[in-house]
Amino acid sequence: MDTFYLKITACDRVFFEGECEYLSFPGYDGSLGVMAHHQPMATVVENGEIKFRLPGGEERYVIVSDGMMNVENNRVDILAFTAERPDEIDIKAAERELEIAREQLQQKQSLVEYNLSSASMARAMARLSGARKLNTGDHM
Predict the structure, then answer these.
(1) How far apart are CA 128 and CA 109, in angstroms?
(2) In what order do the strands lie in the sheet with 30-35?
(3) CA-to-CA distance for 7 and 52, rounded, in angstroms?
(4) In degrees, to the nearest 5, what angle opens at C-alpha 113 toward C-alphas 111 and 86?
(5) Over the stretch 92-112, which tens digit does the pLDDT of each residue have?
(6) pTM given for the model
(7) 8: closest CA among 90, 64, 86?
(8) What one-character-per-residue DSSP string does 94-133 give?
């Protein structure tokens, strides 16, 4: 199968860099996919799970916060605020983050504070979902 070059970068590290056969990611309108020789595009990556397949068939998963993706010349670059393997996520900490975000959303807030609380809640939910799938073996 044809491959393309994939680089996933978070604020604190390069999460992955190498050849890839297939990539699915959470986009604005739902889950989208990229294969070798995809048309050029720039798009948003939403909070959620990215799945990619390496040459040889191994599948890997990463939980990302929102970011951007650029596809051109058989290369995909993803820049996300955070990128974590499901086994790196502390479920108890993610549950606390979700509860804090829910409490903040119930308080009277400015529009900016509301948007930040909503983003925190979406990120916590994505992290919890990814970590729980690891424990059940039920990935996308």
Answers:
(1) 25
(2) 30-35, 22-27, 48-53, 59-64, 83-84
(3) 11
(4) 125
(5) 988 888 888 888 888 877 888
(6) 0.79
(7) 64
(8) HHHHHHHHHHHHHS---HHHHHHHHHHHHHHHHHHHHHHH
